[in-house]
Amino acid sequence: MIKNEKDVSFKITPWEVEGKVNYDRLVKEFGTQYITENLKKRFLKYANALHVLLRRNVFFSHRDLDKVLDDYDKGKGFFLYTGRGPSGKMHIGHLLPILFTKWLQDIFDVNVYIEITDDEKYVYSKDAKWKDIEKYADENILDIAAVGFDPNKTFIFKDSEYIKHLYPLALKVSKHINLSMARAVFGFDTTTNIGLIFYPSLQIVPTFFERKRCLIPCAIDQDPYWRIQRDIAEKFGYHKASIIHSIFLPPLTGIDSKMSTSKPEGAIFLDDAPDDVERKIMRYAFSGGQPTIELHRRYGGNPDIDVSYQWLYIFFEEDDDKILEIREKYSKGELLTGELKKYLIEKINVFLENHRNKREKIRDKVDKYLYDGKLAKKMWEISFEDIFTER
Amino acid sequence: MIKNEKDVSFKITPWEVEGKVNYDRLVKEFGTQYITENLKKRFLKYANALHVLLRRNVFFSHRDLDKVLDDYDKGKGFFLYTGRGPSGKMHIGHLLPILFTKWLQDIFDVNVYIEITDDEKYVYSKDAKWKDIEKYADENILDIAAVGFDPNKTFIFKDSEYIKHLYPLALKVSKHINLSMARAVFGFDTTTNIGLIFYPSLQIVPTFFERKRCLIPCAIDQDPYWRIQRDIAEKFGYHKASIIHSIFLPPLTGIDSKMSTSKPEGAIFLDDAPDDVERKIMRYAFSGGQPTIELHRRYGGNPDIDVSYQWLYIFFEEDDDKILEIREKYSKGELLTGELKKYLIEKINVFLENHRNKREKIRDKVDKYLYDGKLAKKMWEISFEDIFTER
Q1: ipTM score of complex
Q2: Inter-chain Cβ pairs, chain A and chain B, closer than 8 A
Q3: Nearest to B32 by CA among B243, B181, B228, B249
Q4: Where does the pLDDT of residue B1 fall: very low under 50, low under 70, confident under 90, or very high at 90 and above?
Q5: Residue A158: helix, strand or coil by DSSP?
Q6: Residue from B179, B225, B231 whose CB has the most chain A CBs within 10 Å, to mutate
Q7: In terms of CA atoms, which chain B residue is nearest residue A131?
Q8: What is the pLDDT of residues A209-251, one digit of tens each?
Q9: Contact (CB<8Å) B167/A119
Q10: pLDDT tens-place string over residues A371-391
C-alpha cells in the first residue's frame, strides 16, 4: 500500500487501485527502474521488432530485466511466470500481459508458468462462490491458451488443483513472512480474513519452480508480492525475481484509473459481440474531442485524454506511422471523435474475432497446457522436496 | 490465549502451556462444562465399564457431549475426530487421547478421522525441517495405528498429502476468520508468520467431513480451534463441534505443567527401552515422599503431588481397589517412594512392550488407515464440492 501523507489521491494494493494512478510516484516508491530506450534496444538482438506494448511503454518499469538478458546471453536461460485471478470473464486489459508473455516466449523459447489464482479470488471476495470462480477459471484458461503458447513449454495450473505440489513450498515461504511484514506490504487490517493473509505465499511459490532467473510480466499493482519474494529468495538459494511492469489499460470511462470487471461499462470483454463493442465505445469511450463538430474542426481534439486514441496507441494500432498520423489529424480537428471511435471499433472487433477463433481451436488442446504437454507432464511428476534442502 | 489481569501465572494456547495449569479457571474462561457423574453414567449404556481416563477425570470437561449421546440414541450417529502434530517422537501423554478415541470407536462403532498436522508443526517452529517433520509424521502414524482402530472406519491423513481435498474447504473456513478474531483466540502477534495464521482453517476442516455431529477428544489447549468452529459451523449448515477435553499428563518433573517433547527428562517416549524408563522414573519422577525412610514411615507420603502415584492414577493402574490401596499405603508410609516407582516402572514397561508389539504388527496394515480401508478409500475419492452449496 502506498503511504504518502502529502498525497492520498491514490491507493494501490494487488486488490485495489483507486484514484488517478501516478506511475512516476509508483516507480519511486516501489523502487523499480524505468525501462530505458537502451534496455529496449537489447531486445532487438532477439526480435526483428519490439512488441507494441514495449515500444509504447505499456511495459514501462522493471526490476533486474537487464540481469535476465545477461543470463540469457550467457546461456544460463531464464523462465517466465505470470498469472490470472479468475474473478470473472476476461477483458482486454487482462489479455495484454498474456500476449506480451507469449511474445517473450516466442523470442526466447523459454518455459512459461501461468498461475490461476482461484484460491485468491475466492478468499478475497466475501460474496464469491466457489463454483463461479471455478467456472471462470476454466473459461479464463481457454482465453489464455488461445494466445498460442508453446504447448510443450507452458504449464497453466489452478492453485486449488495443483495445491499438493504448491503447499509445502508455500509453507516454507510463509515462514519467512510475518504479520507485520504482510500488513505493511499488502495493507491487511484486522478485518482481513486469514485465507487472504496466507495467500501471498502461494503467489510467490512459482518463482521457485526453476533455479534459473524468473521473469514476471505483470501490472505494477502486483509488485508487493515480488518485493517480498526478493527479500527471501536468496535465503532459499534462489534468484530474486525479475519483473517487467505494465501500466493499467485505462477503462473506456477515462484514462485515470484501471479497467475493472466490476464496472462493465468501462471494459471490453473478450466475449463481447461486435454490437456490444460498438455500443460501448460509442457510448462510454471518453472523448478528448470538442463538444460540436465546428468547435472540433476549429480547435482539434486532445489525444492525451481521449480513451479511443489511448487504446489505439497502447495496443490496437501497431503501426507507428499510422498512430502518429491519427494523433496529428485528431489534434488538428481533421479527424472527428466519431471517426476515431469507428476506427477503434473495427480494430477491436477484428482482434476479438481472431481471438475467439483461436479460442475455439484450442479447446481440444488445452490439456497440453494443463496436464499432457512436456512441461505440464513434468510439473505433475515433480516433487519440490529439493527446495527443502534448507540453507 | 487466556487473559486475566489479576493472575498471569499461566498461559494456554495450542502451542504454549506455561505455568501451573488451573483447570477450573480454564473451564470457566473457555466456557466449557464439567463432565458430571450423571453424564459419565450414560456411557454405561454402551460399555460394561468406563474407560479409566473417563473414570478418573483425565477427560474432565466437554462441550455438547450430551447432544452427541442424544444423537446416537436417536440413531443419528456421530463421528470422531482427533489429531497429532508430528513435531517429534510420541510420548505417553500423546497416546492417551488416541487410546480414548479408540475406546469410543469400540463402543459406538463410528468413523474416526485423525489429522496429522505436518503443516502446523513445520510453520510453528522456525527451525523445523520438513524432512524431519515428515519422518516423525510417518513414525507417529505407526504409533497411532498400533492402538487398533477399525481399519474400515478410520482415516489417518497427513495435511500436506491430503491437501487437495482439504484446501477448498479450508479456504471457505478462512473466509469466516478475520485477523482480529485469530489474534484474540490464538494470541497471534506481529511476529507470527502467515502460515501459522492460516493454519487454524486446516484444523477446523475435518469437523465438516460428515453432516453428523463431530466429537473431538483432545487436550484442553486445543479448545480455541473449536470455539471458532462453533462460531461458524451453523452458517455452513453443519453442527457445532462437540468436544471432550483432557487435562495434560503431568511430566515426571512435577504435576503442575504439561509433558513436553522439548524437555525429554520429563517424558516417557513410546520407544524408550525398559532401562530408560527405569532410569527416568528413578531419577526424575517427582516424589511426594519424605526425605528419609524413617520420616516416610512416620509421616507418610503425599500422593497428590507424587508424579508416580499420579501416573498410576491417571492411567497405569486401572483397578480402582488397587489404586485406593496404593494411595492409602503411600499416605501412611507403608509404601516407600522406591517401591511405588518400581511398581510404576513395571506397569509402563509392560504397556510399552505391548504397544511396540502391536506397532510392529500394524506396519504392513497401516495403508488401510491411509489409503485402502473402506473409509480411507472413500475419503480419497470424495470431493467436498457439496460444502460449497453456500448458505
Answers
A1: 0.92
A2: 131
A3: B243
A4: very low
A5: strand
A6: B179
A7: B388
A8: 999 999 999 999 899 999 999 999 999 899 999 999 999 888 9
A9: yes
A10: 999 999 999 998 876 655 544
Partners of B380 on chain A (C-beta within 8 Å) are none
User: In this complex, do B195 and A179 lie within 8 Å of one another by their Cβ atoms?
Assistant: no
Tens of pLDDT along B31-85?
A: 999 999 999 999 999 999 999 999 999 999 999 999 999 999 999 999 999 999 9
Residues of A in contact with B161 (CB under 8 A): 164
Q: For B47-57, how does the pLDDT look when each residue is reduced to its tens digit (9 = 90+)?
A: 999 999 999 99
Tell me the shortest Cα–Cα distance from B158 to chain A, in angstroms.
11
User: Which residues of B lie closer than 8 Å to A, measured between beta carbons?
Assistant: 119, 122-123, 126, 129-131, 160-161, 163-164, 167-168, 170-172, 174-180, 182-183, 188-198, 200-201, 385, 388, 390
Tell me the one-letter amino acid at A158. Answer: K
Contact B291, B278 (CB under 8 A): no
Close Cβ partners of A36 (under 8 Å, ≥ 6 residues apart): none
Judge: A195–B130 Cβ closer than 8 Å, yes or no.
no
- Inter-chain contact A164–B168, Cβ cutoff 8 Å? no
For residue A92, give the C-alpha cell: 482486454
Burial of B38 (0-12, 13-18, 19+ CB in 10 A): exposed
CA atoms within 13 A on the CB side of A348: 33
Q: For residue range B279-317, what is the model confidence (pLDDT) as tens digits?
A: 999 999 999 999 999 999 999 999 999 999 999 999 999
CB B159 within 8 A of CB B195: no
Residues B312/B329, Cβ–Cβ less than 8 Å? no
A165 with A158: CB under 8 angstroms?
no
Mean pLDDT estimate for chain A: 92
The whole-model pTM stands at 0.92
CA distance B204 to chain A (A): 13
Please write the tens of the pLDDT for every residue from B317-355.
999 999 999 999 999 999 999 999 999 999 999 999 999
Tell me if A197 and B193 make a contact (CB, 8 A cut-off).
no
Q: Is the pLDDT of residue A286 over 60?
A: yes
The interaxial angle of helices A159-174 and B194-204, nearest 10 deg, is 130
